[in-house]
Amino acid sequence: MGAGHAHRLYLPGDSAVHRLPPQCKLVAVLAFVLLVVATPRERMWAFAVYAVLLGAVAVTARVPLRVIARRIAIEVPFVAFAFLMPFVANGEKITVLGLRLSESGLWGAWNVLAKGTLGVVASILLAATTEPRLLLLGIERLRMPQLITQIATFMLRYGDVVTAELGRMRTARASRGFEARDVRATRILAKSVGALFLRSYERGERVHLAMVSRGYDGRMPVLYDVGATAAQWSAAAALPAAAALVALAAWMVP
Amino acid sequence: MKDVHVPDGFIDAPVSIAAGAVAVAGVAVALRGARRELDDRTAPLAGLTAAFVFAAQMLNFPVASGTSGHLLGGTLAAILVGPYTGILCVSVVLLMQGLLFADGGLTALGVNITNMALVTVAVGYGLFRLLLRVLPRTRASVAGASFAAAVVSVPAAAVSFTLIYALGGTTDISLGKVAGAMIGVHVLIGIGEAVITAVTVSSVLAVRPDLVYGARGLIKPLELRTGAPVRPAGDAGPAEPSRA
What we know:
The structure holds two protein chains of two kinds. Chain A is built from eleven helices and two strands; from the N terminus they run αααααββαααααα. Chain A is mainly alpha-helical. A two-stranded antiparallel sheet of chain A has the order 1-2. The longest helix of chain A is centred in the middle third of the chain and has 30 residues, at about 145-175. The two termini of chain A are about 40 Å apart. Chain B is about 65% helix and about 5% strand. Chain B has helices at about 15-40, 40-55, 75-80, 85-100, 110-135, 140-170, 175-205; strands at about 60-65, 65-70. In chain B, a hairpin with a 2-residue loop joins β1 (about 60-65) and β2. In chain B, α2 (about 40-55) packs across α4 (about 85-100), α3 packs across α6 and α5 packs antiparallel against α6. The longest helix of chain B has about 35 residues, at about 175-205. Chain B is elongated and about 90 Å long. The interface between A and B is large, with 93 and 83 residues. Chain A: Keywords: Cell membrane, Membrane, Transmembrane, Transmembrane helix. Chain A: Pfam families: CbiQ. Chain A: InterPro entries: ABC/ECF_trnsptr_transmembrane (IPR003339), ECF_CbiQ (IPR012809), ECF_transporter_component (IPR051611). Chain A: It is a multi-pass membrane protein. Chain A: This is Cobalt ECF transporter T component CbiQ.
């Protein structure tokens, strides 16, 4: 991950994809990515069709291409890894542009690049069209234990608060002339981490007391429910259904 | 300390699904255990700790010659808030990174949770408790045990990744090369992680020893020391302002 997560992916909008209930989109994306991963890597055309399918979703959802392109950068460490593969993998060597490369390494690189990129784009589309709060409601509808979704809700709600706290500590360090130059800086930075933990945990204690005083008994009241109709389920199924046909063809056609 | 969020397509479908089942079982055990560690305070406290892990991963540390890395935090979270809550926090962070930031493939979520939450915490926290049992009961040994636990936990995650790769890797790189590269790099990463973990744990221990779950019962609780009441001779009145 490396650079941290400065910006969120959600793009407010009112497209057909935005309006689908979150649980339908979650299941659709998961099924789609599983089908992509299960497709034999030699069927290059299948991956092209998958890309076209995702492109159609992006157009329907009105997610601009440059948002997707910017976010794909998260893949960079794996792209570097993929480029190394043809040089280090075993198997028969072939000569490409005067370089002796491993054939299976080339296939491996293609495999990771194609499937990894399709997976990232599918996740980007999900995150761009679904509000984080609704995503959590969606996973709760999919029978995720409530404790997990509660923890995730708190993390989401206080993530910015804790990150801002870290930012203020950085300002404070910088205003006292601190600059992280080498390993010796670690001691000071780790003390900040310790202080950050204390502030976060103590905030948690206060939040808990505030919740108890408002009647919290271990479960959150459901204020907003996201039911899904059969029509919405079948609309969301369009993507994985099309992908299933492609995957089936890729398995059958030699 | 670049951590590796495995993307989709790196591990084949059957093994990804099997790792998902392992992750679900591990998180289910952690859910039961976390209620024991934190009772009804679990959600807010684990949530804030997850936010802390998430934020702490953004802090970059200079490692060597211009490169920097960041904390993974599995062992640190386990020592501070307990192993079960630690597993939940790291798993939720991974889940959110996959869902909200497209970081780490959704089909690889099981692999990522197994490596970075289950294995890291089990190895790190297990070693930490084991060391505390043999070491003298001092703050220095808590720091030393944290260091050792974190330094081992990161390569342990690399070993577990290599095992999963051996079962379901999609590329034809010899296992020796993968193991060598992964474990070699992660030994270095582990040292940085260990320094941060040890200093962080001992700085929390200095201020709120009651908040270091792993050192519970080890550090004497702070006690209020009041000297024998000194009464000025001849003063019989109840002049003490507080009786607490």
